[in-house]
Amino acid sequence: MKTRSHWRARLRYEFDKSMAGGAIALIGWLALISLVVIVLAGIFLAVTGIAPEGGEPVGFLEGVWESLMRTMDAGTMGGDMGWGFRMVSLVVTVIGIFVFSALIGVISSGLEDKLSELRKGRSRVLETDHTIILNWSPSIFDVINELVIANQSRRKPRIVIMADKDKVEMEDEIATKVEDLKNTRIICRSGDPTDLYDLDIVNAQTSRSIIVLSPEGEDADSRVVKSVLALVNDPKRRIEPYKIAAEIRDGRNAEVARIVGGHELQLVLADDLISRIVVHTSRQSGLSAVYSELLDFDGCEIYTLEQPELTGKPFGAAVMSYENCSLIGICDASGAVILNPPPARVFEQGDRAIIIAEDDASIRIWNGNLEIAKETIRPAAKRERQPERTLVLGWNRRGPIIASELARYVAPGSHLTIAANSAAFDRDVGNLDIDPTVMTVECRVVDTSDRTSLDALAIPSFDHVLVLGYSDDLSAQGADTRTLITLLQLRRIAERSGKRVSVVSEMIDIRNRQLAEVTRADDFVVSNKLVSLMLAQASENEFMAAIFNELLDEKGSEIYMRPVTDYVSINQQVNFFTISLAALRRGEIAIGYRRQREDDADARKLGGVTVNPLRSERITYSARDMVIVLAAD
Question: Nearest to residue 102, comparing CAs of 40, 18, 33, 36?
């Protein structure tokens, strides 16, 4: 009895194991049942000699065939004659109906499970030369838009997205917020970008580049670092280095990320990038348009490529060798980026030229006549820096970086007033480490959207006003709404005082910039948009992060806007070759101009900013116009 019970348990266990095989195992069992029934029916007909009425007895094979036909089609027995044969056919047909009904159910369930699995986005991607985006954030739509523009010249471009989010939801959001994908196809997959098994789904081994976004939620930087670690240290990774661009919010995590990613990683420090651009733009209205133009694929871009024609030529002469491009620096054989090097620095074998151009195909040496009007070039004059009074309205995690960055540029004796009512505001300001002989800092807790509180700050007395969003305490839309209210109040204060107030504002969402235009602020720095542009550019150009680190570092050469009258006389038309030579004599590189004319549609575009103009074109400038230069000071 005990042995029989043991065998029953063993058989039940083996059956349960086979059922774990899913639909294939079920189909196998149904096929086995059908085979047993058909063979038994064939043997029974052959042994008993039962045959249709008026027919001859059937053999084993014929009996098997007759049983098979009745198993597959219940209507086959409709013409059977003879009760003995009918009874055998009935038994076989009933069993066949059961087996095939179960088979249809199993196949239907299996297909449904497979479709459900496909909807979950868990199948492996078999693309090659594709761009991978890991994690999901509000920046992803701008990144996709920029990659779509960059991909127009490529054949069958693909963007593969993996995030811990439902595949269908991702596809629906992209379809809603990205208007035109042109020739690019988007492939979404659900998974954990920090998991080695899930990363295998996106097939990083054959990818063109990888973008790691900072995800929404807590501990975002840790997830980014872990994703980079999983990519770089995957046992199945390719031998060739990856091209990874990753976003890090907190600069304190940058060193760990660089250790993990090594030479394969370009790091975009989101808060640091935004803070520096906010500071530069606050002191020189219009600079955000310059940075946007340099980062946007739909316009002039920065290229890093070898130019054999420049080998042996001094940098100063090389700058004057292009008519439709702007040479701004050198990337040497070791990969070090040098912006605005000394004019006597000679191009060596293996050096790459860092060039602003509309397209890499348009980069070529100019063989025409320079036609420089040397008589219009003015001598360099020493610039005296004066103490500045700056007001910051609002606060977020980028506030301390902005305050510290301001202290690097202002003249000694400057003053900074910070007014906000954020939760962490007092603590952050108290922790600022700023030399009081350079810039004193005053903290005032006020409601920055209240008119009475703003009037008490004597806003017209400040040289510069920065409006930051409360992005740490509110959603993107909520923070931008508070910013818009503050900007409207500032506009009314400026109108009533009759004085011009220089206002630069940080916006979170690009969609709110058009609404903010009615406030007549001098400039807007759109946080998410700039980070997206930088990540997209870094995924295409492996030197882009290093180039912008140099551009935004006070120790190197930076972008400035200076009066055109400092460089040339405006009593006649001059071409940009002339302005370029005037800038070179000052140790600077002219990369564009800003024309401020209300009746000129081209001048109103991008705030009148033109980057990389045609250098042979003659233009009449006014005293209000500015030259955009790359200079050490």
Answer: 33
Exposure string of 492-531, with b = 16+ CB inside 10 Å and e = fewer, is: ebbeeeeeebbbbbbbbbbebeeebeebebbbbbbbbbbb
**Buried/exposed 158-184: b ≥16 CB within 10 Å, e otherwise:** bbbbbbbbebeebbeebeeebeebeeb
Q: Give the integer Cα–Cα distance in Å for 202 and 196.
A: 11
Tell me what percent of the residues of the chain surpass a pLDDT of 90.
Answer: 35
Task: Give the highest mean pLDDT range of 58-62, 208-212, 330-334.
Answer: 208-212
Residue 347 pLDDT greater than 80, yes or no: yes
Q: Measured between alpha carbons, how far is 527 from 548 in angstroms, rounded to an integer? A: 16
Please name which of 609, 559, 580 lies closest in space to residue 283, comparing C-alpha atoms. Answer: 559
> What residue type is 114 in one-letter code?
K
pLDDT tens string 508-546 = 877 777 777 766 667 777 778 888 889 999 998 888 988
Helix axes 399-409, 270-283, angle to 10 degrees: 50
Tokens of 300: 């002039």
Other CB atoms within 10 Å distance of the CB of residue 76 = 17
Residue 313: count other Cβ atoms within 10 Å of its Cβ: 13
What's the whole-number average pLDDT of the chain? 82
Cα within 13 Å of Cα(203), Cβ side: 18
What span, in angstroms and rounded, lies between the C-alpha atoms of 134 and 128?
A: 17
Query: Do the strands 626-631 and 589-594 form a parallel or antiparallel pair, or are they unpaired?
Result: antiparallel
Length of the chain: 633
Tokens encoding 403? 């305050």
Q: Which two tokens stand for residue 63?
A: 């009996």
DSSP 256-293: HHHHHHGGGEEEEEHHHHHHHHHHHHHHSTTHHHHHHH
Q: How far is 210 from 159, CA to CA, in rounded Å?
A: 10
DSSP 621: -
pLDDT number for residue 367: 86
| Closest by CA position to 626, among listed 389, 290, 297, 374 | 290
CA atoms lying within 13 Å on the CB side of residue 66 = 27
* Residue 432 near residue 424 (C-beta atoms within 8 A): no
| C-alpha distance across the termini of the chain, in Å | 98
Q: Please return the burial class of 312, using the count of CB atoms within 10 Å of its CB with bins 0-12, 13-18 and 19+.
A: exposed
The tokens describing 250, both together, are 């907190």
Task: Name the DSSP class of 378.
Answer: P
CB 89 within 8 A of CB 73: no
The string of DSSP letters for 132-172 reads EEES--TTHHHHHHHHHHHGGGSSS-EEEEEESS-HHHHHH
Band (26; pLDDT cuts 50, 70, 90):
low
The Cα–Cα gap between 327 and 586 comes to: 16
Instruction: Give the pLDDT confidence of 57-109 residue by residue, as tens digits.
Output: 565 566 556 665 655 555 454 455 444 555 666 566 666 666 666 666 666 66
Q: Which of 337, 242, 291 is nearest to 544 (CA)?
A: 337
pTM over 0.85: no
